[in-house]
Design brief:
The structure holds two protein chains of two kinds. Chain A is built from eight helices and 19 strands. By secondary structure, chain A is α+β, with helices and mostly antiparallel strands. In chain A, strand 16, helix 7 and strand 17 form a beta-alpha-beta unit. Chain B is 46% helix and 17% strand. A two-stranded parallel sheet of chain B has the order 1-2. Classes of the chains: A alpha+beta, B alpha+beta.
């Protein structure tokens, strides 16, 4: 099963948002989660239909020409903070080595990386479970970026409107969500790194081999007739979801610090952020650019700010606005030498670009979009014979 | 997930691949081509 989450329409539908209104609806869900950022689960006995297996029973998918081997790309890692015991869900690529071993890449900004470091400081392995094929609510929650002291399971409960049912794992001290169709239990070994990669990553390039974490498999099982969810890394399924949730994060931050924030998009790649505003005062757009730079230190390499009439998912229209609504020299901000995406040994993602594509404040009447009365009512079949 | 897949099928947003697909590159190639043409979910049954 693939391509489940590649449609913006479906993402809106999953959180009961009107098309084009993901950001405010997601913001409301986060507000509700903030009032109860943990819990939202109830434990019971394991499902009766669990079937024991091994990793090689799963589809071992080799995605790209130069990948080092088959990869699990849709697996959600479930683990607990070793100190607070708050559960966390997150995505990390996992390379199949054998039925007993996966090699995994933990991004240094992810909570799981910090959990593993805490465990490693005590020379302990970190217990974790890989959940493959879960409910849409769990999948969205795992994709979200939320404060470290919130539980993604609590967020999933808010999204679905019901408690997340769990059962005790077989070999580790974790509660497994009943909605997970395939489960791989194990532990991330302390003080051990082995070669992982290369792998074709989301930016469209191969990430070279590196010494990364080792996941020791202790149990594999699935629900009877489980479906296997596969994600082509960097595909529209991968990026649409990430772009949408990054935009929602930016929207939430910007709304807290500035007025007039209407919507945010991170299309066509989440290295870009486009903010739609209702201009409130001269210089408003430049403040939005500055605030957006601070909202996410990894991803928003470029920030555009546009007026309310611009379709922020259409970069042709965004660039048209930038080029047609004012000077390029006075509406471009370049910030040198700021670190960006964390996996960047050659500083290719350093620096920031801000582009104010709004019309000059107070001269809105001069930039009224021309329109042709009746244009949308024309049926060309009635004219061309 | 079963419920969600059934909903997508009912909504006409699910394409089914009924032929056997090789997990070595072919599955990824089919996925990429399918995504070029639509947002529909893709379910390989074999």
């Amino acid at each position: 099963m693939t391509n489940l989450f590649s449609s913006r329409h479906r993402l809106c539908e999953l959180i009961q948002a009107e098309d084009g209104n993901f950001c405010p609806a997601w913001n409301r869900i986060l507000d509700e989660t903030a009032s109860m950022p943990s819990g939202g689960t109830c434990s019971s006995a394991a499902p009766a239909d669990l079937v024991t297996g091994k990793l090689s029973d799963l589809p071992l998918i080799h995605y790209h020409e130069k990948d080092a081997g088959p990869y699990l790309t849709s697996a959600i890692f479930l683990a607990k903070d070793p100190h607070t015991k708050i559960p966390n869900l997150s995505f990390h690529r996992a390379m199949y080595v054998s039925d007993q071993e996966l090699r995994i890449r933990l991004g240094s900004t992810h909570d799981l990386y910090h959990y593993q470091q805490k465990a490693e400081e005590r020379n302990e392995a970190l217990e974790a479970a890989l959940l493959i094929t879960v409910s849409p609510a769990l999948f969205l929650a795992a994709s979200a970026s939320i404060p470290r002291d919130w539980s993604e399971l609590a967020l999933a409960a808010k999204i679905s409107g019901e408690e997340i049912e769990t059962y005790p794992a077989r070999t580790i001290d974790l509660e497994i969500p009943r909605a997970a169709r395939i489960v791989v239990e194990g532990r991330i070994r302390a003080n051990e790194r082995r070669p992982e990669g290369p792998f074709g990553e989301f930016m469209g390039y191969y990430v070279p081999q590196a010494d990364n974490h080792v996941f020791e498999v202790t149990s594999v099982y699935s629900r009877r007739n489980a479906v296997f969810h596969s994600i082509l890394c960097g595909s529209s399924e991968d990026l649409t979801l990430l772009e949408t949730l990054t935009a929602a994060k930016m929207y939430r931050h910007l709304n807290k610090v500035l007025p007039g924030i209407v919507d945010v998009s991170c299309s066509p790649a989440f290295m870009n952020t486009t903010v739609k505003i209702s201009q409130q005062y001269e210089g408003h757009a430049r403040q939005v650019i500055m605030a957006a730079f601070g909202a996410d230190l990894d991803y928003n390499k470029a920030v555009f700010v546009v007026d309310e009439d611009i379709d922020i998912t259409d970069m042709n229209e965004v660039m048209w606005a930038f080029l047609s609504r004012g000077r390029v020299d006075k509406r471009t901000m370049v910030i040198d030498d700021v670190p960006g995406f964390y996996r960047d040994p050659h500083k290719d993602h350093w620096g920031r670009l801000g582009l104010d594509a709004t019309m000059p404040f107070g001269r809105e009447a001069e930039f009224e979009r021309k329109r042709i009365p009746g244009e949308t009512d024309i049926d060309l079949d009635e004219y061309f014979k | 997930m079963r419920n969600y897949i059934n909903k997508l099928k009912a909504d006409g947003e699910l394409k089914t691949v009924a032929v056997a697909v090789d997990p070595q590159f072919e599955l990824a190639a089919v996925t990429k081509q399918a995504q070029r043409h639509s947002d529909d979910a893709v379910f390989s049954t074999r």
